[in-house]
TrEMBL record:
Enzyme class: hydrolase
InterPro entries on file: Pep_S46, Peptidase_S1_PA, Peptidase_S1_PA_chymotrypsin
Keywords carried by this UniProt record: Aminopeptidase, Hydrolase, Protease, Serine protease, Signal
Protein name: Dipeptidyl-peptidase
Organism: Corallococcus exiguus
Function: Catalyzes the removal of dipeptides from the N-terminus of oligopeptides.
UniProt xrefs under Pfam families: Peptidase_S46
Family assignment from sequence similarity: Belongs to the peptidase S46 family.
GO annotation (BP), single: peptide catabolic process
Enzyme Commission designation: 3.4.14.-
The organism's place on the tree of life at top rank: Bacteria
Signal peptide: 1-18
Listed GO MF terms: dipeptidyl-peptidase activity; serine-type aminopeptidase activity
Record lineage: Bacteria, Pseudomonadati, Myxococcota, Myxococcia, Myxococcales
Length: 697
């Protein structure tokens, strides 16, 4: 287990120490920051940070960096948009993109930016609604009440998004109200070769030399949105030992899970995920060898698979470490002893851990059917998921809001429709390959005699089914999708489209296994996790941070190196190192724009750096700011040790990896001549802008 470090045994028990924590805006430990770093963020400071940091609905973070709606995020967070805007003749992933004028900014087909404007604690309301309920009744009531709260918040305004966020495994519920921007346009993106320099071999490693940055702009009513709450650019960027804050949307952590849940993850879920992703990577790698166009249209998917595979390996290694896992066991045992020692607490909470263990055992019995019938491992095609959404919309939308599947409640409909009717290109050859792979794996895992396998495949092979339904479907056309949506259940049921027919055929079985999971597993885990969280509150208080939930959070830390296998890792790399590491061959081949500009750039300019900020996937694209709320960097990765951060944090080695703010300025000015962007970030800096090369416009 390469460089795996045992994480402190404290996880999930006592209050967080050191720079640990992905904190909510309404429970940030300002006094703790002052004690360690001599700076205490005030409420006005926190409010400006919250409004300047934004979320990309697809799973990343970003920030406003000008008063005219300019948004900075990672290149890999905008890859979907960049790929969708590309063609075989004009490949913006390979060649980059720069809009020299506002009129040249290109609208992303399916990107949404969310700005958090309000947080409301609704715990009491949710607890009152579900008091004394258990099992299915608890689950149904909770979902209905959540939908009710979200609907009242958005009040039918499609420019507002409201998410009810579960914190502390149900110990608290907060309502997050967002300002929603769905007209997002591409402004600047470098070439993939420099945005992901080092490729998969360097992913989750340090030192790094990446320019993983992209700029987009939000519009409303066809005009750039005025954004007074934005982050100004720092003069010198981050330096060693500087205090740093990361504001973003960490996707998920599992630091508060019970031992039963962690054992299932370690022994079942992660090994199966690793096998599935490894085989999917192999399929996509072979697909890319069919030709340059096949490589272009599948590169974004392959990037995501490889990133997920490496992250899953790191998480699995963390859970396989015996000392670390023993620390998790000890923390749970300590909490349970404290509960058992108090008769009142014992009566309320003692059974919760055993109930969760029973639910995990039940999950093991339905895991395969759940994965392949409902969760997308078998019917693994974007077109199929579109067809299923149309089928389910016909059934769900006539129901009362609180009785629908969560993805069809009123609060989610705007985003769902934007995704369904997006003009983003769909590639039939790739869809056939994906669906063939999924159906093949489904037959392999469930067995050829499984009723669902027989129903879906009949006498055909996976490839024959995939080819028939993809080639025969009209769902590639957004107008066809909208017609079925508008026509409702009657139009869907009458459709002869083979992809819709496949979705209609599969849906009863898919719904049945989903219902079994929600009633027999999910509801039990949710209810009892809520009890475990309340037990922790009663014993340890509320000085802990909740697990990440892809909701806005703040972490604090500093620019700091670390020891790796006896060697000191310096915290900052330089731009000259980028050229020193280049070999001319993928993934260490620099784009022509950089090779032409080597003598022009200042080699000592900081390139990438690391900090002790606590982050996880979803923080990609997060701004790194100083105490003056100035941009000093852009988060794009963590080091290999940070992958164990899913389950715990060790400040001695867990590191955030970011693009240095000065590298962004140097590249925009001297390599790309992106003067219009440069002037927005740092007014007056375009007066000395030698232009050597530009990405394609």
């Amino acid at each position: 287990m390469k460089r795996l470090v045992v994480i402190a045994a404290l996880v999930g028990a006592a209050p967080a120490l050191a720079d640990e924590g992905m904190w909510t805006y309404n429970n940030f430990p300002a006094a703790k920051v002052k004690e360690k770093y001599g700076f205490q963020p005030e409420q006005q400071w926190m409010d400006k940070l919250r409004l300047g940091a934004v979320r990309l609905a697809g799973g990343c973070s970003a920030s406003f960096v000008s008063p005219d709606g300019l948004v900075m995020t990672n290149h890999h967070c905008a890859r979907g948009c960049i790929e969708q805007l590309s063609t075989a003749k004009q490949d913006y992933l390979a060649n980059g993109f720069y809009a020299k004028a506002q009129a040249e900014e290109k609208q992303c087909p399916a990107m949404e930016v969310n700005q958090l404007v309000e947080i409301t604690d609704v715990t009491e309301q949710l607890n009152k609604a579900t008091a004394s309920l258990t099992g299915k009744q608890y689950s149904d009531t909770l979902k209905a009440e959540m939908s009710k709260v979200e609907k009242a918040c958005s009040n039918g305004d499609d420019k507002v998004r409201c998410d009810l966020v579960t914190l502390y495994q149900g110990g608290k519920y907060n309502l997050y109200k967002y300002r929603r921007f769905q007209d997002v346009r591409l402004v600047f993106a470098p070439e993939h070769a420099i945005a992901f320099f080092g490729g998969d071999p360097d992913n989750f490693e340090f030192p790094r030399y990446d320019l993983d940055v992209t700029f987009v702009r939000v519009y409303q009513d066809k005009q750039p949105v005025k954004t007074p709450d934005y982050f100004k650019w720092s003069e010198g960027g981050a330096k060693e030992n500087d205090l740093t804050f990361v504001a973003g949307n960490p996707g998920r952590t599992s630091r508060a899970l019970t031992i039963a849940e962690l054992e299932y993850t370690r022994d079942v879920s992660l090994p199966k995920t690793l096998m599935y992703l490894s085989e999917l990577r192999g399929m996509l790698t072979e697909f890319q060898k069919r030709g340059p166009e096949q490589k272009r249209i599948s590169s974004n998917l392959l990037f995501g698979v490889e990133n997920g595979l490496k992250a899953s390996k790191g998480r699995h290694e963390a859970l396989l470490d015996k000392k670390f896992f023993a620390s998790k066991v000890a923390a749970e045992q300590e909490l349970r002893k404290k509960v058992d020692a108090n008769p009142e607490l014992k009566k309320k909470y003692a059974a919760a851990w055993d109930e969760i263990a029973k639910a995990e055992a039940q999950l093991l019995t339905i895991r395969k059917d759940l994965n392949f019938l409902e969760q997308g491992n078998g019917l693994s095609s974007g077109l199929f998921h579109t067809a299923r959404a149309l089928v389910r919309a016909g059934d769900e939308l006539p129901k009362d809001n609180g009785q629908r599947l969560r993805e069809f409640n009123d609060a989610n409909l705007t985003a769902l429709k934007a995704q369904l009717f997006s003009p983003a290109p769909i590639y039939p050859e790739l869809e056939i390959a994906r669906l063939t792979f999924g159906l093949t794996k489904m037959r392999e895992e469930l067995g050829a005699k499984h009723p669902f396998v027989k129903k879906v495949l009949g006498k055909e092979s996976p490839e024959q089914v995939a080819t028939r339904v993809v080639k025969g479907t009209k769902l590639i056309d957004p107008k066809a999708r909208k017609a079925l949506w508008d026509g409702g259940k009657k139009a869907v049921d009458a459709s002869k489209d083979p992809m819709v027919q496949l979705a209609l055929l599969a849906d009863p079985d898919s719904r049945a296994i989903r219902k079994k999971f929600e009633d027999d597993v999910e509801s039990i885990i949710k209810k009892n996790s809520e009890l475990v969280a309340k037990a922790k509150f009663d014993i340890y208080g509320t000085s802990q941070y909740p697990d990440a939930t892809f909701s806005p959070r703040v972490s604090f830390g500093s620019v700091k190196g670390y020891m790796d296998e006896g060697q000191q890792v310096a915290p900052i790399t330089q731009m000259s190192g980028t050229f020193e590491h280049a070999t001319g061959q993928d993934p260490y081949a620099l784009p022509k724009s950089w090779l032409k500009s080597e003598k022009v750039i200042t080699g000592t300019t900081p390139m990438n750096f690391i900090t002790t900020n606590d982050i996880i996937g979803g923080n990609s694209g997060s701004p790194v700011v100083n105490k003056n709320l100035e941009v000093v960097g852009l988060v794009f990765d963590g080091n290999i040790q940070s992958l164990g951060g899913e389950y715990g944090f060790d400040e001695s080695v867990n590191r955030t990896v970011a693009v240095h703010s000065e590298a962004i300025i140097e590249a925009l000015q001297k390599i790309y001549g992106a003067n219009r962007v440069l002037e927005e970030l740092r007014p007056g800096s375009t007066k000395v802008a030698p232009v050597k090369a530009n990405p394609a416009g």
